[in-house]
């Protein structure tokens, strides 16, 4: 058996297997009679569409979260190399933290963190 024939045979077997799984799921769904549009979890009917727009203040909070998430990504390796790099590493980290704190103070002054 050549390599091309073996590859095509494996592809055909994989396609038949995937088709069988989809067919079994389709047969189970038809036989169950469960409603497709029923609410899940809380049991309450949704009041908005699933892809409705968010209020603008959520984007500011998201950016703040990502900034502080990145802070932690940089702080973990920083703690490992601080002894080898010396005082320059401490100064660089405090400059980085000052930039982050400046961003939070700016967002606070603009009222982005006010929820009322």
Distance between the termini: 72 Å
- Tally of alpha and pi helices: 3
Number of strands: 0
Helical fraction = over 70%
Low-pLDDT stretches = none
Largest sheet: none
Structural class: mainly alpha
Shape: flat
User: Overall pLDDT, averaged?
Assistant: 82
Radius of gyration: 27 Å
Strand and helix order: HHH
Q: Could you give a short description of this structure?
A:
The chain is an all-alpha fold and 116 residues long.
What does this protein look like?
By secondary structure, this protein is mainly α. α2 (56-85) runs antiparallel to α3. Helix content is 72%, strand content 0%. It starts with a helix and ends in a 6-residue tail after the last helix. The protein has three helices and no strands.
Record the SSE blueprint:
Blueprint: H1 3-32, H2 56-85, H3 87-110
Helix pairs in contact: 2-3
Annotation keywords:
mainly alpha, 116 residues, 72% helix
């Amino acid at each position: 058996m050549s390599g091309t024939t073996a590859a095509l045979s494996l592809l055909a077997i994989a396609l038949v297997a995937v088709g069988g799984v989809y067919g079994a799921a389709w047969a189970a769904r038809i036989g169950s009679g469960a409603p497709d549009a029923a609410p899940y979890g809380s049991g309450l009917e949704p009041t908005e569409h699933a892809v409705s727009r968010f209020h603008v203040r959520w984007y500011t909070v998201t950016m703040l979260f990502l900034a502080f998430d990145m802070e932690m990504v940089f702080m973990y390796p920083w703690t490992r190399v601080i002894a080898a790099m010396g005082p320059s590493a401490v100064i660089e980290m405090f400059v980085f933290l000052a930039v982050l704190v400046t961003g939070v103070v700016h967002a606070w002054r603009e009222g982005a963190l006010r929820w009322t």
